[in-house]
Amino acid sequence: MRIYSVTVGVEGGDTRVLKVPSKTDVQAGDAAAALMTPGETILSIHETDDQYQEVDEGARPPGTQTHPDRIV
């Protein structure tokens, strides 16, 4: 499992960075979506080199296409 920093917010306005676990950058966006508030969009996604594998509280890996309700 990789750790991604996902910057979310309003373009030209306030932003915040979410750290989420995911296998791919595309799935990182899905994992971050669960932590976003209405009106926020994903501005960037970058894989981190976090040796401690720390993520935001409530961040969970997204399910898969074949098992959307199951956490991988």
Please tell me about this protein's structure:
This protein has 72 residues and is mainly β. It contains 1 helix and 3 strands, in the order E-E-H-E. Strands 2-1-3 form a 3-stranded antiparallel beta sheet. The model has no long low-confidence stretch (mean pLDDT 85).
Brief account:
This protein has 72 residues and is mainly beta.
Residue-averaged pLDDT? 85
Strand line-up in the sheet with most strands: 2-1-3
Q: What is the SS-derived class?
A: mainly beta
The main β sheet shows up as:
3 strands, antiparallel
Features:
single chain; 72 residues; mainly beta; 3-stranded antiparallel β-sheet; 3 strands; 32% strand; globular
Secondary structure elements and pairings:
Layout: E1 2-9, E2 15-22, H1 25-33, E3 41-47
Antiparallel strand pairs: 1-2, 1-3
